[in-house]
Every structure is written in structure tokens, then in C-alpha cells.
Design goal:
about 280 residues, alpha/beta, Rossmann fold, six-stranded mixed sheet, about 55% helix
Length: about 280
């Protein structure tokens, strides 16, 4: 299979547009997608510092790489969650990538720096490990971004965003749907702005590009995330996307285009449901 633009060996094929792209033109395409997301949702202003939440997975490493390629002032922060070999590997991969692209990486250990054991705390509180982990990560990442005077960027991709929106729709979590945004503003001096520049990039694109560029990333999933409900929703949507390419992009893009209308409509729902 040859690249539709230059005739070089292609690494990815888009059935909806019937075009294939080589590594160089895939990078160009992904850079345009990130630029589009940043501009459309007003994620960054000129000269702002960006702190990327780096897990060691493909999406966070891709985000770090693309933002640097676009010329943003960017650093990384990695949280070692203390989850045995998984966390050790994640930190090692993150450190090696930081050296590869020549960027600073701050490493924070939840056990060493905060005295928190994720699994032990989840058992004491009778809460799933993912719930405790999410709370701890949000606090630590926000603190790091505020202290460095940066905008916090996370590697949530199109698949992640679609699964989150669909999960909230399935449970009719109106408050989460109301607050949903790829660019969350700061409403307090101790809260950092949060952005998701990969919102138009699929998991397949992310994995393909990292493999094509020789970017090492952590392959195994977190051992505690497989049973999470969001993972089930994400798997179901992936099968829909496989059968009908472009569905996820249309779903997420349409939601945010119609978001103002949606927000106006749901403000009347409580009075209709409970007169």
C-alpha cells in the first residue's frame, strides 16, 4: 500500500476517505488535528507553558511529541502510582522518552512523596482502585500544574472522549454532560486549566504513529483498569467504529457543536420530569 500523497510506503489507511498515509504525512495530518483542536476550543494562548501528564502510554507520549513539534513550551510530569512492575516500567519508558526529545520530566511518587498506597487505600475505603487512583492523580497533576504556572494537558484521545460522553449519557449524568469540555477553564487560583489536544486523534492513529516513529510506549494496561465500566463502553464503541469508520468523530464533534443548544435544553429537563 502506497501513500496517497507521495507514493512512499503507507502506514495507515482511512477507509472513509479511501486514502493511505506514510509516516511523514501521518505526522502532518496529526499536527493539523491538534492545531484544529487547540484553535477551536481556545486551548492555548501564545507563550503559555504546557505541562503534559505523561503516563508512559502511547497517547501521552504522542501528545508531548506533537506539542513540541508545534513549538509550544512544554514539559512533562509523570506520577509513579506504586503499582509494582507496571509503575516501574511506566516511569522508565517516560524517562527514556524525555531524554529522546530533550524535555524536562518531573517524576512524582504517590507513596514516596505523599505516603499514599493506592491499593491499600482503596481497600480501607471500600472503593475501587480506579476511583482512588483518579482522585489522587487529579490532585497531584493539578498541584504540579499550578506550581509551575502551566496549562495541564492530558492525552485523552477521541476514543476516550467518546466513551466518557457515552458513559454519562447511559447513566444520564446531566451534571457531567453539562461540564464536559476538551478545555476546562480555571475558576480558582489553585485550579489549573486542563486541555485535551488529542480529542480528534483516534487510538489507532496514536498507536500507528508511535510504532512507525519507533516511539517506545507501555503496552500492558493498568492491572486495575480492565474491569472499569468505562473500558466496557470504550470496547463497545470501538466495535461500532470498526464497522462504521468515522462514527466516533461525528459523535464527539456533533456533541460539542450542538453543546450550547444541548445545555439550554437540559436546563428544562428537571421541571419536565418532576413538575
Amino acid at each position: 500500500m502506497k501513500c496517497s500523497r507521495c507514493g512512499s510506503d503507507a502506514v495507515i489507511f482511512y477507509p472513509q476517505s479511501r486514502q493511505a498515509l506514510c509516516t511523514e504525512h501521518l505526522q502532518e495530518y496529526l499536527l493539523r488535528k491538534v492545531t484544529r483542536a487547540i484553535r477551536r476550543f481556545k486551548m492555548l494562548e501564545r507563550g503559555e507553558k504546557v505541562l503534559v501528564a505523561v503516563s508512559g502510554g502511547k497517547d501521552s507520549l504522542l501528545l508531548w511529541y506533537l506539542l513540541k513539534e508545534l513549538g509550544h513550551t512544554v514539559e512533562g510530569v509523570h506520577i509513579n502510582l506504586g503499582l509494582g512492575d507496571y509503575s516501574k516500567l511506566s516511569e522508565e519508558v517516560s524517562r527514556r522518552f524525555a531524554e529522546r526529545i530533550g524535555c524536562r520530566l518531573q517524576v512524582i511518587g504517590v507513596e514516596e512523596d505523599y505516603g499514599i498506597n493506592i491499593v491499600g487505600t482503596s481497600r480501607r475505603l471500600h472503593r475501587p482502585p480506579c476511583s482512588v487512583c483518579g482522585t489522587v492523580k487529579r490532585y497531584v497533576l493539578n498541584k504540579a500544574a499550578v506550581e509551575s504556572g502551566s496549562v495541564l494537558a492530558t492525552g485523552h484521545n477521541l476514543d476516550d472522549e467518546a466513551a466518557t460522553l457515552m458513559g454519562n449519557i447511559l447513566s444520564w449524568n446531566l451534571e457531567q454532560l453539562r461540564r464536559a469540555s476538551p478545555a476546562l477553564p480555571s475558576n480558582h487560583p489553585k485550579l489549573a486549566r486542563r486541555i485535551k489536544p488529542l480529542i480528534y486523534i483516534t487510538e489507532k492513529e496514536s498507536a500507528t504513529f508511535c510504532l512507525a516513529r519507533g516511539i517506545e510506549y507501555v503496552l500492558p494496561e493498568c492491572p486495575y483498569s480492565l474491569a472499569a465500566r468505562l473500558a466496557v463502553v470504550k470496547d463497545a464503541l470501538a466495535r461500532v467504529e470498526d464497522k462504521s469508520p468515522g462514527t466516533l468523530l461525528n459523535f464527539v464533534d456533533s456533541f460539542y457543536r450542538k453543546r450550547p443548544e444541548f445545555l439550554r435544553s437540559i436546563s428544562f429537563w428537571p421541571s419536565l420530569l418532576f413538575p
